[in-house]
Amino acid sequence: MKQPLRKDLEPVSTSFIVKELVESHFDPNWHFHPHYQLFLVEEGTGTRFIGDSIKPFRPGDLVFLGPNLPHLWRSDQAYFNKQLGLTTRGIVIYFAEDFLGSEFFAKQEMNSLRLLLNHARQGLEWTGKTRALAEAALKNMTRQPDSFDRVISLLTLLKELSRATDYSYLTSPGYTNTVKPTETDRMQLVHNYVLGHFPDNLSLETIADLAGMTPPAFCRYFKARANKTFSEFVSEVRIGHACKLLLGGKLSVTQISFESGFKTLSNFNRQFKEITGQTPSSYVKTYRRI
Questions:
Q1: Burial code of 189-200, b = ≥16 C-beta within 10 A, e = fewer?
Q2: Are the C-beta atoms of 62 and 126 separated by less than 8 Å?
Q3: pLDDT of residue 1
Q4: Which end of the chain is less packed: N or C, by CB atoms within 10 Å?
């Protein structure tokens, strides 16, 4: 995966940023920044990379990220084809931990919000009623002309999110951002190669050569930075692609397994359950209920 870029937001006069994103595709750069980020996908599909988490995204995807947590919403390849005229849309909020003063969240009344902010350092996603509530609140905030009203709306939304129980963590408990300023972009080459060739028989020797390393050295390098082995990363990319095809409902499970790079249906079913915790059929039923 590409070496994450550290981004700093442009200075603004307001205490936080809320804006609508309308682009042909979402930002293709693997990056992080020192702000909290609440992001709702309104239109578009692809694969979401957050820390060591790899999952498909679709409209309604709602996540909350803590500071310096690397992330990327990689739009499907069709969104990069200008002739198709596809569009992605989303609503994003950025705010610093001290956007209301250095001691604001340290007050006793802010205990639940402070806990929410701590949880966000692992990345959070919501489903069900909470997601619908947050979606309505975010859309309302983009229409509020008064900055003070937006602050009240944000605090109210954070309060509702802090009380909700239909959430899950995105990254593993042991994940940390190990990015160093001196790192090269060899992970970018690996990331792009895997996304372009995951249906094929990927060779560790080819990938290691692409990164300019021996296979053993590359395996150690990759695991230290991705918090997972290279084979686990490839499997998660393949399963993420399979999830999108399953939700599309146009192909059989057998066709999807081969389209996603698995040579046998039994191996596909085994890895699908290991990664998602569900069988392909139960996965589809779960997401149709959300």
A1: bbbeebeeebee
A2: yes
A3: 47
A4: C
Instruction: Return the H-helix or E-strand segment holding 148.
Output: helix 147-163
- Residue whose entry in the numeric block shows the structure tokens 């094929």: 200
Superfamily the domain 5-169 falls into:
Regulatory protein AraC (2.60.120.280)
Q: Cβ(36)–Cβ(96) under 8 Å?
A: yes
CA atoms within 13 A on the CB side of 197: 13
| pLDDT at position 184 | 45
Tell me the three state secondary structure of residue 78: helix
The full set of domain ranges for the chain reads: 5-169, 186-289
CA-based max dimension of the chain: 57
pLDDT means per 10 residues in the chain (290 residues)?
52 79 89 91 91 88 92 90 94 93 89 94 91 94 90 95 93 73 63 85 90 91 85 90 85 92 93 89 73
**Same topology between domain 5-169 and domain 186-289:** no
**How wide is the angle at C-alpha 92 spanned by C-alphas 90 and 94, nearest 5°?**
165
What is d(CA 154, CA 139) in angstroms, rounded to the nearest whole number? 12
Distance (Å, whole) CA 265 – CA 259: 11
State the pLDDT at residue 2. 47
pTM: 0.75
Q: Which of 32, 12, 33, 162 is nearest to 99 (CA)?
A: 12
> Please, which residues have CB within 8 angstroms of residue 182's CB and are 6 or more apart in sequence?
none
Q: Are 61 and 125 in contact (CB under 8 A)?
A: yes
**Looking at domain 186-289, which CATH architecture does it have?**
Orthogonal Bundle (1.10)
Q: Say which residue the tokens 């239909």 belong to.
A: 166
What pLDDT does residue 288 have? 63
